[in-house]
């Protein structure tokens, strides 16, 4: 959906940073700064309502410092913030990923990375699930011996819920397994 790799030599809408070729993880360029941030506004070109989103990025510190990755998600009704502090003793690229839940068109996601010294950011990705599981898949059913009698799963290719029914003999051993759709 969105991918900021900084290879074009542009900061791609990030504020507080400049392009650097010193420590790039992916390609030749990355973003360098102290406090860098960007806001993504979700449009109908990007998602439909109730699309599950993930944010991932790489951050590097070249000195012992506190680095915080803050994600603010703002909807029409409310906002919330996730704060993740990176290990200040690692002087390597650190990968961080967040599941942002189901988002709607018009939501705003602000990513802010702060440190007390120079930091580097690369390969920032805001992605969506390739498919969504329906919310109305029934729970599995069990008999009095705790054996599954029905289980349900979603087939994303056919976009159908499959039901597998199990039949057991008198010794509680699986006798038959039948799959139906719908």
Describe this structure in words.
- The protein has 182 residues and is mostly beta strands.
- Helices cover 0% and strands 58% of the residues.
- It has no helices and twelve strands.
- Strands 1, 2, 3, 4, 5, 6, 7 and 8 form an eight-stranded antiparallel sheet that branches. Strands 9-10-11-12 form a four-stranded antiparallel sheet, with no helix packed on it.
- The two termini are 32 Å apart.
- The model has no long low-confidence stretch (mean pLDDT 91).
Q: What is the terminal separation in angstroms?
A: 32 Å
What coarse outline follows from CA principal-axis ratios?
Answer: elongated
Could you give the order of the helices and strands? EEEEEEEEEEEE
* Number of extended strands: 12
Q: Please mark out the parts with pLDDT under 50 across 5 or more consecutive residues, or reply none.
A: none
Query: Measured on Cα atoms, how large is the radius of gyration?
Result: 23 Å
* Average pLDDT for all residues: 91
Helix content: under 10%
Individual helix count:
0
| Secondary-structure content class | mainly beta
Question: For the report, how would you describe the main beta sheet?
Answer: 8 strands, antiparallel
Please report which band the strand proportion falls in: under 5%, 5-15%, 15-25%, 25-35%, 35-45% or over 45%. over 45%
